[in-house]
Structures are given as structure tokens and as C-alpha cells.
Design a protein that fits this description.
The protein is mainly α and about 400 residues long. It contains 15 helices and no strands.
């Protein structure tokens, strides 16, 4: 009875963690549908404005190589509060930037500050929510990330139709909400008193999580970038129409959370990853080759749902593989994920411009490769590579 009460109470403390999960991916794609408006507003070129995606993603991914372990050592709550405050400042600087140089600098600061929030949120959830409930919690966190990635083009597109600076209102308000109502102290306690170790991160299960994370975002961000271009090129949609179509990604990610949680709980992360890789292949081919708008949107929906599954699976593999340094493990897996996103535009834009729809369809090779990796490494890490529900949390949380 006491455990049930504790888990219900824990559920009430988790909501700021999900809001924080929304912010990281939101920032990665929010500039994509409004590059022309940003360029015009700052007397620059669309090509330069498009660099705002990489300006955010590269420091975001690079700092996550170390941010999780450092924050575990410095204290999760202290680091989260400082990083969230810095994120609000960086977002305000983006909205107020008078030149492209200052805008890109502020975008880099946005990415750098978020590097010290997102992995800690995954670690906090895995310590706060015990047993079979962890699968559900991780799937909802993945849904929050999908919502951030998928809904940002809609909000940005609507904002850009009035003034591109308004697009920064949503992440700014979310960040301010978390500054005022941060996760509770109990939600950010570590489940172990052992010092977070760098050496513990060198294990094969975490390497598998990192590889699948990289491939998942290489494909997912490839979809979001190329879908924007194809929706404009083939169907002549403007920023608002593109934003509405792209929002299907986030909506599908949210809707996929309950079935993903059940699949993760009953069949484990490896099986969940394989199923969602197949869904991603189908979705990418529909989005790339569909001759009608409904088929393209259906493809976006499938990929959005699949990404929630892949994020859930890789986060579960990461945090269960390194129970004494969950922040560091989540940090590395998420770093790989966002490195995949950071290089996606560089990899896929030339292919799309050279081959058109066939170049877009080539993105479907990536989830095929991910499925091969999961299949060939099925026994990696022993039982924990595909743990049943009761093993998803190896260390139960305790107060200090």
C-alpha cells in the first residue's frame, strides 16, 4: 500500500520532467519553416538562416557527451535550475537579436543550456518511477519529445505568418514555467549514493543504445527537413500549411505513448525498436513517394509514432545499462540522437536536390540499418538488452 501511494505521488511530481522533455527537440526544428522570414527580418540569406538548426544542434549534442555525468556529480537540482534560467535568457536573446550573428549565437546558447536539462530528466524519471511503471513513464517522455519536434513547425509557422520573433514565445514560456515550478527535490534525487563514474559508461548495451539513437534521429530529422521542402515543392503549401502537416508528427508521437509503453513493458526495448523501425520504413516511403497530400501526411504520422517507440527503447537500454550513472548514460544516448539530427540536413539535402523524391526515399535505408543492428546485437548485455517489465528498473529510488 505504501509503495502504491509513493508511486501515485511520484506521478504528480513528474509533469515538469515531461515539459522539459518537450523543450529539447522543440528547439531543434523550430526555425525550419521560417528560414525565409528570419533571413528577411535580419537582412541575410535563407542559407545563413538555415544554419540556425546546426547552431542549436551541435552544442546541444556535443555538451551532452559530458553534461549528464557532470550534473550527477554537481547535483541534478542545482544544474537543472541554472540551465533552465539560462535557457529562458537565450530564448529571449533569439527573439530580440538585431543581427544574424547575434541570432546564431543565441541559438547556440539555447542548445548548450538544453544539454544540461534533457538527459537529467530521463535519469530523474528512471530513478523516480519504479518497476513496470518505468516503461510507461519513458514512453510518455518520448511522446513529449515527439510533440516538441513535431509541433514546433506548426507554432513557428503560425508565428512567422505574423512576426517570426513570436515563434520564440512558446519555448520561452515553457522555460519560464519550469523556472517558476521546477521538479521537486524528491524528483531529482539520485537512486544511489555512489559517485557517478565515467568508466561505467564503457559498456556494450549503452553503445547499442547510442547507435540506434543516432540512426533514429538521422532519419527523423531527415523526414522533418525534407517533408517541409516536398510539401512546398509538390503541393505548394506555405508556412502555416506546412506547420499543420508537420504537426501530425508530434500528435502521432503523443498518441503512440500508451501502446509503446505496453510494448516496452511486455516485450522489452529491443523488440520495441524492431517493430518501430519497420513502421518508420513504411512511413518514410509514404512521405517521400506519396502522390497525394493525405498519403504524405500518413507517412509523417507513421514516422512520428515510430520515433516515440525508438526513443523509449533507447532510453530504456541506456538507463538500465548503467544504473549507477543514469544521467551520464542518458546523456550519451541523447547526444548520439541529436548528433544524428545535427548532420541530417547536411546528409540529406544534397541527396534530395540531386535525386528529388527518390533521394527522399533513400532515408528509409536508415531504419533498415537500425533494425539490422538490433537484430545482430540481440544478445548484447545479456537479459538486460531485452528486459521484462520487472527488470526495467534495476535500482529502486530512495530518499536521502
Amino acid at each position: 500500500m505504501r509503495d502504491s501511494h509513493r508511486e501515485r505521488a511520484a506521478g504528480h511530481r513528474v509533469w515538469p520532467l515531461y515539459v522539459g522533455g518537450f523543450l529539447g527537440p522543440y528547439g531543434s526544428t523550430m526555425v525550419t519553416p521560417m528560414v525565409h522570414e528570419v533571413a528577411a527580418g535580419l537582412d541575410s540569406t535563407p542559407q545563413t538562416a538555415a544554419a540556425a538548426v546546426s547552431a542549436y544542434m551541435l552544442p546541444f549534442a556535443a555538451l551532452m557527451l559530458v553534461s549528464g555525468t557532470l550534473a550527477e556529480r554537481w547535483g541534478r537540482r542545482r544544474v537543472l535550475r541554472a540551465a533552465l534560467a539560462a535557457f529562458v535568457v537565450a530564448t529571449a536573446l533569439c527573439a530580440a537579436a538585431p543581427t544574424m550573428e547575434l541570432f546564431l549565437t543565441a541559438r547556440a546558447l539555447q542548445g548548450a543550456t538544453n544539454a544540461f536539462t534533457t538527459p537529467l530528466l530521463v535519469a530523474a524519471i528512471s530513478d523516480l518511477v519504479a518497476g513496470a511503471r518505468l516503461a510507461k513513464a519513458l514512453s510518455w517522455f518520448a511522446a513529449a519529445q515527439a510533440a516538441g519536434q513535431g509541433l514546433s513547425p506548426l507554432f513557428s509557422g503560425v508565428g512567422a505568418a505574423l512576426d517570426w520573433r513570436l515563434a520564440f514565445l512558446v519555448p520561452g514560456l515553457c522555460g519560464l514555467l519550469l523556472v517558476c515550478f521546477p521538479p521537486s527535490r524528491s524528483a531529482t534525487l539520485r537512486a544511489t549514493t555512489a559517485r557517478a563514474s565515467w568508466r561505467s559508461l564503457a559498456n556494450r548495451q549503452l553503445a547499442l543504445a547510442c547507435a540506434v539513437s543516432f540512426l533514429a534521429y538521422l532519419a527523423a530529422v531527415g523526414l522533418t527537413v525534407l517533408a517541409v521542402l516536398r510539401l512546398n515543392d509538390r503541393f505548394a503549401l506555405g508556412p502555416v500549411g506546412i506547420g499543420l502537416a508537420a504537426s501530425a508528427f508530434g500528435i502521432a508521437g503523443i498518441a503512440a505513448a500508451p501502446p509503446t509503453g505496453r510494448l516496452l513493458r511486455t516485450r522489452g526495448p529491443r523488440y520495441t525498436g524492431l517493430v518501430t523501425d519497420v513502421a518508420m520504413v513504411v512511413g518514410l516511403l509514404c512521405a517521400a513517394l506519396g502522390t497525394s497530400l493525405p498519403v504524405v501526411v500518413a507517412g509523417i504520422v507513421l514516422v512520428g509514432a515510430a520515433v516515440t517507440g525508438l526513443r523509449s527503447a533507447t532510453n530504456a537500454l541506456a538507463v538500465t545499462g548503467v544504473p549507477d550513472n543514469r544521467g551520464g548514460a542518458a546523456s550519451l544516448a541523447l547526444s548520439a540522437q541529436f548528433f544524428g539530427g545535427a548532420v541530417a540536413a547536411t546528409v540529406w539535402l544534397p541527396v534530395y536536390h540531386a535525386l528529388g523524391d527518390r533521394g527522399f526515399a533513400l532515408v528509409a535505408v536508415v531504419p533498415v540499418l537500425s533494425a539490422v543492428v538490433l537484430t545482430l546485437t540481440g544478445a548484447v548485455g545479456g537479459r538486460s538488452a531485452n528486459p521484462p517489465a520487472r527488470d526495467l528498473t534495476a535500482v529502486r529510488p530512495r530518499g536521502r
